[in-house]
Amino acid sequence: MKLVLASSSPRRLELLGRLGVKPDRIASPDIDETPLKAELPRDYVIRMAQEKAAAVAREDGEVLIAGDTIVAVGRRILGKAEDEAEQRQFMKLLGGRRHHTMSAVCVIAADGTARTKLSDSIIKFKRFQDSEIDTYIQSGEGQGKAGGYAIQGLAEAFVISISGSFSGIMGLPLYETRNLLISSGYPVD
Hints:
The chain has helices at 10-18, 41-55, 84-94, 130-139, 166-170, 174-183, and strands at residues 2-6, 25-26, 62-73, 76-78, 98-108, 114-125, 159-163. By secondary structure, the protein is of the alpha/beta class. The protein has a single domain (2-183), classed as Maf protein (Alpha-Beta Complex), CATH 3.90.950.10. Strands 1, 2, 3, 4, 5, 6 and 7 form a 7-stranded mixed β-sheet that branches. The longest helix is centred in the first third of the chain and has 15 residues, at 41-55.
């Protein structure tokens, strides 16, 4: 049985490796990731994972996995920071408060059955000094990352508390992913 990873994220590939899983093929889905008007973060991230999965063609016998990760403050979705100004805005918003990181995973089994799971983690950062934000932005670590930060790097030192899945915050919740792969018939040790 072959596995397709519908993602260009090196983090998702690395995280799959932690399960002892190596995709046979990687395909980057090309979809419109614009949130719908008044779409809630939970609904948005699930829809994105499902649309990414549906956007990549599967061959006979292939299992496909796709995922999406967002950061949410209340009903506000913080996508990938496009530039330093947006990253600074995100960091100021996240400093000193709790926020959610949601990761959805969609697995399409070889028989075409799609299953989706959501991981919702709560993170609280310390209140940031402007100099800490400047230093973090200059590191380049948070560019192109949901919410403007990467939990597995320098930003981890700002975390007061986490409730939920660390791997989910990184971009692929391993517990949910493992269970989805097993339920789809894909062998996971």
